[in-house]
Amino acid sequence: MNAQGKRTWCVAGGGVLGQVIALRLAQAGHHVSVLEAAPETGGLAASWSIDDIVWDKHYHVILPADRRTLELVSELGLSSALVWKRSRTGFFADGRLSPLNSAVDYLRLPSLGILAKARLAFTLMWAARIEDGRPLDQVPVGDWLTKWSGREAYERLWRPLLRAKLGTNDDRASAAFIWATVRRLYLARSAGAKTETLGFIDGGYDRILSALRDRLSSAGVDIVTGCPITRIAPQGDQLQVETAKGARLFDDVVSTLPCGVTARLCDALSPELKARLDSVVYQGIICASLVLDRPLGGYYLTYLTDSDLPFTAVVEMSALAGRERFGGKSLVYLPRYVAQDDPFWELDDGAVRARFVAGITRIYPDLDPGAIRAFRLSRVRNVMAVPTVGYLDAVPAVETNIPGFHIVNSAQITDGTLNVDATLGVAEAALPRLLGGAMADNLSSAA
Ligand SMILES: Cc1cc2nc3c(=O)[nH]c(=O)nc-3n(C[C@H](O)[C@H](O)[C@H](O)COP(=O)(O)OP(=O)(O)OC[C@H]3O[C@@H](n4cnc5c(N)ncnc54)[C@H](O)[C@@H]3O)c2cc1C
Fold first, then answer.
1. What is residue 436's predicted lDDT score, i.e. its pLDDT?
2. What is the position in ligand 1's atom list of the atom closest to the CA of 418?
3. Residue burial 144-158, b: 16+ Cβ < 10 Å; e: rest
4. What domains can be seen in the chain, in order of their start residue?
5. How far does residue 423's CA lie from ligand 1's centre (Å)?
6. Confidence at residue 442, expressed as pLDDT on a 0 to 100 scale
7. 352 lines ligand 1 (CB under 6 A)
C-alpha cells in the first residue's frame, strides 16, 4: 500500500472481464496492473486478421437486451458505431438446408412429426417464461427436455443440439443450461418481431477492445501482455505474482482466469477450494474462420443436427454485417465445441481443415473449395464452464482463504450462457466486494 493508502492490484487475465475490473479499480483510485499471457489483450473477444480482414477471432454479436454491454459501448463513445440488423437463421438436417425464421418455417421443419413440433414449441415458450432458473440446476437436462418435449423431439433435435454445444458433456449438464440458452434467444427477439435483431460494432470487437485499452492507459493502468503468470504466493501481507518477466508484489490479486488454471497457480489455496475449482468442467473450442469469394446460405446462424459433421454450427458473419464490410467477400465461422478428452484436439491444423472443408461442401454442394480464399483456426481449451447438475454448489466465491486473493471469472455466471453481458454482470456483482474490502483495509490501516 502506498503513502496515500491506495492499494496495488494485479488483475490476472486481460480479457474483457479483467480489463473492465481493472478500469473500475483504477477509477476508484487504486494502482492496477493487468497481466495477460497472450501477445494482445481481449481473450475470447480478441480480433485477428484473415486475408485482408480484421475481425473477431470468434464471432460476436450484441443483443438489444445486453444492457451492460450497451452501457460499456456508450461509455467508450462507440454508440454511433453500433449497427442493428435483422438476422436470418437456417437449419440443416437430413441433408436439407431450411430456413427457420417463422412459424411456417418451423412447421415445415424436416424430421419431426406434428406432435413433436407442438411439444417443442411449448417447451421453448415455457423455458423463455421461467424467470428463475435456479431450481433447474438440480435437474439433468435430458430428463427435463424429454419430460416437456417428448422422446422424439429430444432424440432427433435437442440431443444433437446439446451435443453440438457440450460434446460428451451433454449428459452432465443441468436443465439450467437449456433455460439460459432459450432465454437468450428469446431476448434477441424484440416484442412482436418475427426475426432476431442482432447488433455489432462497425469494425468488430476490435474497436471496443482498443477503446478499452486507451481508457485503461488514460486511467494509469499498467497493461503487460505476453506475460503468463506462473505462480501466485502469499508473501507477508502481500501476494507475490511470478511471471516469465519476473516477480512482483501486490496488495491484492484478482484472478479472472479459468478455475482449474487459478487452482494450479496458487498452492496456498485451501484443499477444499482447489477441489471446488477443479470440479468445474470446461468446454473448449476449435473455431475456423473462412474468407470466401461468394456468399453461403444467407443465414447468420445455421443449426446443425447431423453428428457426422465435424463442426457444430455455421455462422455467416457477412450475412449479418453485409459483405461490403469485408471488401465484397464473405466471412464465415465454423465452431466446434470440444470436451477436454475429445481426440479432436490431437488433429493438426491441416487435418482439421480437410475435415471442415469436406463438411461445409456437404452442406453447400455447389461451394467450390477454390472459393475459400483463407482459412484460420483458433483453439482455446477453457472457454465455458459447463453448468453440470448441482453447479450452483460448485461455483467459486469471490473471496478465498488467502487475504487479498480474489476470484472473479465467467464460471460465476449462474443465470445465463457465456456472453459478454453476463461476464460484465459477474464484474458488476464482484466490484462492491473488491472495493469494499479494499476500503475496509484502508480504514483499518489508517486507524
Ligand atoms: C465462439 C465464441 C462466440 C462468442 N460469441 C459471443 C457473442 O456473440 N456475444 C457475446 O456477448 N459473447 C460471446 N462470446 C463470449 C465472450 O467472448 C466471453 O463472454 C468473454 O470474452 C469472456 O471474457 P473473460 O475475460 O471472462 O475471459 P477470456 O476472454 O477467456 O479472458 C481470460 C484471459 O486470461 C488470459 N490468461 C489465461 N491464462 C493466463 C495466465 N496464466 N496468465 C495471464 N493471463 C492468462 C487469457 O489469455 C485470456 O486473455 C463468445 C465466445 C466464443 C468462444
1. 85
2. 19
3. bbbebbbebbbebbb
4. 8-45+206-280+396-446 (3.50.50.60), 47-86+196-204+282-385 (3.90.660.20), 103-187 (1.10.3110)
5. 9
6. 45
7. no
